[in-house]
Every structure is written in structure tokens, then in C-alpha cells.
Amino acid sequence: MILSLLAGAALIFGIMFVGNWLMRSPSGSLKRRLGGGLIPLLLVLVAVLALTGRLGLAFATLMAMAPWVMRGLQMWQAGRTIRDMLRPRPKPQAQTETRQAPSPPRPGTMDRSEALRVLGLPETATADEVQAAYRRLMGQVHPDKGGSDWMAAKLNEARERLLSD
């Protein structure tokens, strides 16, 4: 009886020690650590339980503890998320050729040929054709219909540029 209690206490402390060890380890080395230490330890534990005839009892205990373990994992993930949100972010460095979403257009920077290209119009387009092309394209790319703010801004700028001429 006392031996079972001591074994249970040792198991609880072992689980706490391994959990603390895993939480402190860098994320890149976690896979290496699990493969190198924890998995062989679990295999030895399963072998000992199978040889002593307690594998069924251990499996039933693990299944009974599964909801608590899942809840603990959820709480651990939530704690990591909160920690990441509270951690100060490093200041961005100069980026070299990274693919980013295009920045919104600066007003007054679009020339006539680019505005015609954006609206898909020929060089001889009239004001009515500009308005019709604008309405047709805006109906497709408006942010309220799932389009992008950037494209809507480009269309607005193109229309303003062509109608101001």
C-alpha cells in the first residue's frame, strides 16, 4: 500500500518535472528532446507495467485522466498565447525583398496611362465609359463584397485621375 502511494507520488513529481523541463526547452529542440529522452522512458514504463500485469489498469487510469490532460493542454496553450501577446515585440528591421501586401496608393501619384490600365479602358475613353468601367469593377472588388481595400482605392484614384482631365 505504502509502496503504491510512493510510486504514485514519484509519478506525479516526475510528470511535473518533465512538464517543467519541456516548457523551458526551446521550441526547436523539443522534438529532439522528446525523441531522445521521454519516448524511451515511456516505452520502459509500458514494458514494466505489461510485465507486472498492470497495463490494463494503467490504460484505464490514463483514459480517465484524458479530459483533465486535455484541459491542462488547453490552459497551457492559452498561457503561451497570453505570454506572447504581453511580450514586447522587436522593432522591425529593414526588410529585403519580402513579399507584402501592396500599400495603399498615395493620392495624386497615378498617371493617365496607369489609370486607363487599372480600369481596362482604351486611350480614347469618354467620361461615361470611365464611370461605367468604374461601377462594373467596383461591383466586383468592393470591400463589402469580399474585395480588397487596396484595389478599391486604386479604382477610386484611377476614376478621379481620368475624370479630372
From TrEMBL:
One of its GO terms (molecular function) is ATPase activator activity. The chain crosses the membrane at residues 6-22, 34-51. Residues 87-111 are annotated as: Disordered. It comes from the Bacteria. It is found in: Membrane. SUPFAM superfamilies: Chaperone J-domain. This is J domain-containing protein. One of its GO terms (cellular component) is membrane. It is a single-pass membrane protein. GO terms for biological process: protein import into mitochondrial matrix.
